Amino acid sequence: MSEELSFDASKARIAAASHYLAGGVSSNFRLGIAPTPLVFNRADGPYLIDVDGNRLIDYYLGMGPMILGHTPADVIAAATAQMGDGLLYGGQSTPEAEAARLVCEMVPCAERMRFCSSGSEAVQVALRLARTATGRRVIVKFAGHYHGWFDNILWSTTPPPGANGPVAGSLGQATETSEIEVLEWNDLPALQARLARGDVAGVIMEPIMCNQGAIFPRPGYLEGARAACTAAGTVLIFDEVITGFRVSPGGAQQLLGVTPDLATFAKAMANGFPVAAIAGRAELMELVTKGVVHGGTYNGQAVTMAACVAALRRLGDPATLAGIAPRGQRLMVGIQAAFDGAGIAANVGGLPQIFHVALGLSSRPRNWADLGRMNRPRYIAFTTALLRHGVRALERGAWFLSTEHDDAVIDATLVAIGKAIKEI
Fold it and tell me: Active-site residues: which are they?
């Protein structure tokens, strides 16, 4: 790897594109990347090749989806074959039904399911189903958990310390909050007390808090939440957009042994193709045939469904995720050891397929309040230095692994980490 990579061409391309694309990008989550948002020419396995010619080891993985790497031959072949038979039918395709069958066989809660185009959309279906099924309006979510960018759920994703009540996530966001309440995650008594009032339609949570951090539920927390929701007649919704098909073939619900009423999925399920899903109990899902509107021109689009089938067949083989585990574990241990050796407080936690690095924390975080104490500016300095040494990692602290991150890639990453730590 080069000692000091240059990103001048990316910087120039972003500046030029800004005359047409607002900010030079099409998602706010690609803004503000240090030293500049990057522009890429191609990808190969665990690598991205940018317009400056830099070959970067990639731990963004498209912000999660590319669990089989950037160029999986089987997924690409399936999509290519389907393109020869048509793109969008305005009707159903053969691979759509096959993909649905695979989801229902793999996911514990999935008695029925529907496809969407994004995780944000899938969450909206879940909220409608919960409100229809219960006749109630209030949705409970948790500080630090992200469930999409729509007005009714973009609350308290990164609230300031001591925030009282829901905190809006965007300028211009609709400000009506009577139907949303925010609690601290991993506090079972607080959730039980709120549900006991009998007016909550649904509780939505990441079963493992992965959008911010990679935090496990406390022992008994998910089981207690499940029991409290059942007792209160409240719909329990797991947002498995990140964890689904990544932490186990059946998602976090399979790994942790707690089955929600509904769950949302996206990212890894189609390895880079825009596929998402809502799945759950049959009587809840069948409400979309009885007045709950769920639509979308691109839902179940044939090419994406062909890719989804190929990806799910790979991910349904336990050996696929098991192959990632030892290398991800070695990387986690190596990162923790590197920071410990440098005398820098850091916590590396999560799973080998998705983990989080938090600088400034000497103990495991349990919720957003704990995680909010991490030293974010120093971590961004670290990822910026790391990029100069050929490794691309998300500035929010998440590290995604793929099947293509082999031992040689892990070795090269650990060398770059050592150099970047010296620079901060």
Answer: 146, 239, 267
